[in-house]
Amino acid sequence: MAEKNEKVAVHASPRPRRQAGEDAFAPIVDIYQLEDGTTVLEAEVPGATADKVDVRVDKGVLTIYADGRLSDPPKDYACTYQGFCGVEYFRVFALSDEVDRDRIEATISNGVLSLRLPRAAAARTRKIEIKPG
Amino acid sequence: MATFRWPVGWDPFAGLRHVQRELERLTGRWPFSESSGLDGGGFPPVNVLNGPDEILVQCEMPGLRRDDIDLSITGETLVIKGRKQSAADETTVTYQRRERPFGDFTRTIVLPDSVDAARIEAKLADGILTVRLAKSQAAKPRQIPVK
Known about the structure:
CATH topology of one domain in chain A: Immunoglobulin-like
CATH topology of one domain in chain B: Immunoglobulin-like
Radius of gyration of chain B: 22 Å
Oligomer: heterodimer
CATH class of one domain in chain B: Mainly Beta
Shape of chain B: elongated
Helix content of chain B: under 10%
Distance between the termini of chain B: 90 Å
Distance between the termini of chain A: 65 Å
Order of helices and strands of chain A: EEEEEEEEEE
Structural class of chain B: mainly beta
Helix content of chain A: under 10%
Largest sheet of chain B: 4 strands, antiparallel
């Protein structure tokens, strides 16, 4: 079976469509930069699918919300051991000016939300030519 | 302001390290301990639910693909092991923040009832592994008529 890698829409609007519940958890993330200056952010949101994720950019603020809640098991199932429960995820980041906010892409696969934050053209390293004087 | 300098050869954390070693010995590294590896044996987090006809085991393993997981059963003991890959090769990228753990993991789960090893179904979706183990005939509840 092919692995799912679904695209997630990135919204630019100030008010979140879904408010995080009071018991939302901050998902753990890895943030790294590729050689071309693109920043990649990966957040662990197990249980969430593309339709349960909300990624929002408003000026310099990136807001990630994901609903990873699991459906309840049948009532006659006794709980022998509980190590986790599906939760809502919510985390906010400040974006630097170097990020091109209009070209942010988001995908989700295997419970990991992956964001590509390309570097703005103006922020790219430009070699300065030294003219003979 | 005076600068305090430790005498050469004196390790102020020696006592703490000794305690840490003792704790590691008791919880992680011994042959009779139940699990080892990532998160001191706590990965992946599991739920075990006991239904009338089956046992349901759920594991939270985001970022893992089917090939990364090794699932096996021996009697009433389910063993989940594998390797959680790191997000990217650290020689080609620059990490700014690294919170996601990675590495080998092994988790041993003793099931509450005996199961039929031929009727086990495991599905991985959205980072959650769901294992359904049908109970063996002997483990199913049976009504006893009272005369």
